[in-house]
Structure formats: C-alpha cells, structure tokens
Amino acid sequence: MKRKLKLKLKRPLPQPQGERIERLIASLITYLTTECHLSQNTIQAYSRDLQRFRTWVGNKNPKDLTIVELSDYVAWLHDQKLAPASIARHIISLKVFFRYLQLEGVLQDNLAELLGCQKLWQKIPTVIPPHQIDDFLTAPWSEDPYWRRDRAILEVLYACGCRASEIAGLKANDVHLSEGFCRLHGKGNKQRLVPLGEKAVAACREYLETERPKLASRGYDSPEFFLTRTGRPLRREAIWEMVKKYALRAGIDPNVSPHTLRHSFATHLLAGGADLRQVQELLGHASIATTQIYTHVDQSRLKKVHATFHPRA
Fold it and tell me: Which SUPFAM superfamilies match (predicted)?
C-alpha cells in the first residue's frame, strides 16, 4: 500500500516589527485620506511625524510600549532640537495613530493619550509695516523672467490674506476678475469668497493676458491659475522662496514668509477699523479665538480705542 503523503501547511514567517509598523502607518494614511478626507498638507504632516516615530521605535511592537518609553520618545524629540510647536504636533500625530490601532484591534489600551502636550506660549506674529508693503509688492521687475506672475502672486497674498497652499491650489475658474473676487479652498477643503482689490485685479489681469498663455502652452494643461515656467502648478515651497527673494530685494527681513503677508493683511484691516468677525471670515478661521491674536499686534489701534472711550485718556 502506498502511504499517503501528508503535507503540512507552512506557517507564514513572522513579519518583522519594523515592516509591520510601516504597513500600519500606510494603512492609517489611507484611512485619513479616504475616510476622513483630510487635506493633502495635513496628510503629509501626519506621514512625516509618524515616519519619525518609526525611526525611533525601531523593531519594537507598539502594543509592548510602556508610558515610560513613550515619554522617552518625547524626550528624544527634544533632543532632535524640534520647536515646541513641532513636538506638540508629533504628540498629536502619535495619539491619532494609537487611536487608529485601537480601532483596528491592534491595541486594547491607548497609552499615548496619557502624554500631555505642553502649553505653548502664543507667539506674536511678524507684520510688515504699511510703508514697506508697496516696496515689497513692486519688487518683481522686468528683469525677472516671470515678473508679472510673481507680482500677481504677492498682490493676491496681501489682498486676500491667503495661505501659500491656497495660492498654489487656486484654479483659473476660481478667479473672477470682472467681479473682483476669488474663491479660496482652505483647510478641510472649506471654501470662502474673498475680495481681490483693484491692484490685485490689475496685476492678475496683466499676468493672465501676457504670461499665463505662454506658460499654459507648454503642454501640461494645468487648471491652476499660477503656473511654473514648464506649465506645471506652482509648489507652495516655490512661493515661500519667492517671498523671501523679493523681501530681501525690498530691504525687508528675509525671514518673512507667505504667512507674514497673511498676518499683515489681518493687522492692517483691524488698524483700518475692520470688525474682528469680518477679519475672521476673510481669513477662514473656524474660531474667533484664533483671530484675536491680531488685536495684540496692532498697538496703535488699541491706543486709539483707549483714547476714544476711556474717560481719563
């Protein structure tokens, strides 16, 4: 009689913990993208933060980590010379990751929730004085390859108080020059309509009529309003570099950023008498508490209010 050969199914080799964490992080990113519909910038921030955690954790299993070890991770972030705001964001990213592991049944207890985020001092934003704004916005000149585009970008940044990511994502059909406004896509893909103003409209129209047709003819058919020399959409990093370049030329602190123009927009509006709620709406802030920081920036406005309404001013 022939003996039957019994074949045993081979058990899969245990997956290295490093690869397992990499897979879990990728799964979280997919979840945040498809289920939570977070913005691309937020997704990238979570991904960067968790890759740093992946570097620290090595081959350890997340479910075996103790609160002491997680505290060591925070201490390690300090050793990496990260700013307090960056460390706070890394802790939030870790908490989101561990909540997801709970959701997937990988973890039973979420020890990351026991990590406290340090209270951050509210930093007073840097603002460009009104007398320097004109020099800055007119810094692009005819010797620059695409000076009309660059001038239009600076004008829109200051006219709308928008973020660099909102400028980079601005579509051609979001800009309504005849009506004098544009539609911005903010955080969480929230949309808002913001007036452009005469000078921003003029700069955008000149760019639209002279430079954009040439850039758009490079074959990429990009729907974005502002294009690179190859016809592709501008990256927000390129907008940051552009702002620093023209700030240096205008004799302004080269540490300014596109967000500096956003701060200047809000501060100058409040100085001109705009209502705080109106500025909140223009900036796209979800909470007025975020907008209130600009009341601390404009000392001239506070002095004027004090002189007008205080009985012994």
Answer: DNA breaking-rejoining enzymes
